[in-house]
Model the fold of this input.
Amino acid sequence: MRKVFINIKQLLQIRPKGEFKVAGALMNELPKIDNAFLAIKDDKISAFGKMEAYSPKKGDECIDATGRLLLPSWCDSHSHTVFAGHRSQEFVDRINGLSYEEIAQRGGGILNSAKTLEKTSETSLFKQSMARIKELEKMGTGALEIKSGYGLTVDAELKMLRVIKKIAQQTAIKIKATFLGAHAVPEAYKSKKSAYVDLIINKMLPKIKTENLADYVDVFCEKGYFDLKDTDRILTAAKRYGLLPKIHVNQFNAFGGIALGVKHKALSVDHLEELSEADIEALKYSQTMPVALPGCSFFLGIPYTPSRKLMDADLPLALATDFNPGSAPSGNMNFIVSLACIKMKMTPEEALNAATLNGAYAMGISDDYGSITVGKKANLILTKPMENYAEIPYAFGNNPVYKTILNGRILN
Ligand code: NIG
Ligand code: FE
Done:
């Protein structure tokens, strides 16, 4: 039996099989069909086209989508959705004048979250995180990368990754797991950072491999965290375990992290609030996806990733939430799309490409997610009534999602 959406006002982001990302000027095109139908068989898109071309089959279950848009669900390729508690006191401290970096230097920031997480049981961590996942489902997220990195000990990193694995089994959102042991240098290793890098390489990576807990590896490559040498060591070791990099680079300082990521064939390089000409050059002709995290820029009041510079250089760009308790406490991709348009001057077409197909590419799943393509997973958003897709970013702060469809099942 098929589920068939009929009378869809606009069916958005239609791509041929084999188109895995979109770059440069082409990001300003969002292929669509007005007055369309889309059929789902089991968990996959099985057919779509102009309404006139719909030939009903016996047993079709029709859903009338008059006045509504249908598009691929959001592909959020960078998040820290598994965390314990919150850091609202640091938020208040920043309002009162401290910077994110000053808070981190005082032992707050990532180390603060690590302290809380250490005291939190696996069961409670799962419960807290799963509640966030339920909210994301309602906001149209259909694929999500989640990082570890608030553990910073062998046991706590494994605890986080096991929670991510359990989430993957209990949500229909497609989950990818990234090991981010190198998120901050823990207190106990303050004056011996290279010993902590050794711990990551010699203890954490082998255990993660044995339990098959991660798809990718990440490093916070930044002044005061992990430098180029540390990053190079970790990425080299991770490669032996089959983990491709997706790294945090150029959040506050540009010092060659992007070129290093490209050298290691990183699937993505993320943040990029600071971007030099050399960084752009390094990205040209690479297969690495640049990822912007405008929620972090908004929340911390730091520059936005210069998206125009990247697209003018014929590069692609993805958008993600960075959902985490310190620099971006929201996993709402609708708001991210709005921010991209309002603050980064991306067109709605560019932002929608960046938040769907390119996001899927940045987590290595664009063969199955991120566009309206026959054979891809039916992970979709059916919007509230609207005239045009520009209304999605335009009405910032609203949830444009009427129904989320995951694996062919209609939720909420
Ligand atoms: O992507 N920059 C590094 N990691 C996170 C923030 C982590 C935190 O403050 O808890 C980020 O912004
Ligand atoms: Fe992050």
Q: What stands out?
A: The first helix runs from residue 88 to 95.
